Amino acid sequence: MSKFFPFLISGFIGMFLLSGCVQTAPRSTIGYLPVDFCYLDTVAPSVRVNLMYAGDDNFVGRPLAGYKGTRAILRRDTAEAVAKAADMLAAEGLGLLVRDAYRPAIAMRDFYAWSKTPDRKMQHKYYPNISKKGIYEGRYIGTTSEHTWGIAVDVTLVELTSGKELDMGGHVDLLDPSSATDYTGLTPTQRANRYKLRDVMARAGMRNYSKEWWHYFLSPSGLCRVYSFPITDYLEEPKKP
């Protein structure tokens, strides 16, 4: 998800911005990817992908604006980090399932517009103990995200052969205190699975957002650009605009 509250820079994002990571205006790209982006499956073919915001099973209950395809897109350095984590897990018979990757800025605006409507049809599954306002106040989501920079994934562990998800003590995008990576009310197996994911992603160079066990990002350096090109399943190789 992640973490900009309107008009308030929070947590590690603020740290990045203060250290020289600068946002620019949203950039639209139609028919091709920006030169430094790629489809995840071209770099990490063993990683399973099921983009939750391309369908109806998410906290909004419908596809989000900008999700016109089913292939995960990431900045290439982030895709390579995910591939590294997947390679390390394969030795244990485990793999990764990516539920979200690059997210267009238009989708973040769609989240915010939805938050102002009375619709709560998915509350029972995704935010059972908070209001829609609480989604923003709790910093589960904000007006922009590392996802819009192309450097974040929402991910869980699966058995490599069957694709069965491991017990993580809650599903991806359960917006609840129990989703904190270090939540104390977990079983030993659930805690071990969360820590296994955290450890392998850290070894691959990615950091966890502590309120969401599934959210990992590559620490940016230099320019951080907010993108808004749509997610589409184009087959051509990325090329420079």
Give a description of the structure:
This protein is an alpha+beta fold. The chain has a five-stranded mixed beta sheet, covered by helices on one side. A two-stranded antiparallel sheet has the order 1-3. A hairpin with a 6-residue loop joins strand 6 and strand 7. The chain has a single domain, classed as Muramoyl-pentapeptide Carboxypeptidase, domain 2, CATH 3.30.1380.10.
What's the SSE pattern?
Answer: HEHEEHEHHHEHEE
Contiguous uncertain segments of 5+ residues: 2-30
Write down the overall geometry. Answer: globular
The CATH topology annotation reads as Muramoyl-pentapeptide Carboxypeptidase, domain 2
SS content category: alpha+beta
Strand coverage percent = 5-15%
Features:
alpha+beta; globular; 241 residues; 27% helix; 7 strands; 5-stranded mixed beta sheet; Muramoyl-pentapeptide Carboxypeptidase, domain 2
In short:
This protein has 241 residues and is an alpha+beta fold. It has seven helices and seven strands; from the N terminus they run αβαββαβαααβαββ.
Secondary-structure topology with pairs:
Layout: H1 11-18, E1 37-39, H2 40-43, E2 48-49, E3 73-75, H3 76-90, E4 94-100, H4 105-115, H5 123-126, H6 132-137, E5 152-159, H7 188-203, E6 206-208, E7 215-218
Parallel strand pairs: 2-4
Antiparallel strand pairs: 1-3, 4-5, 5-7, 6-7
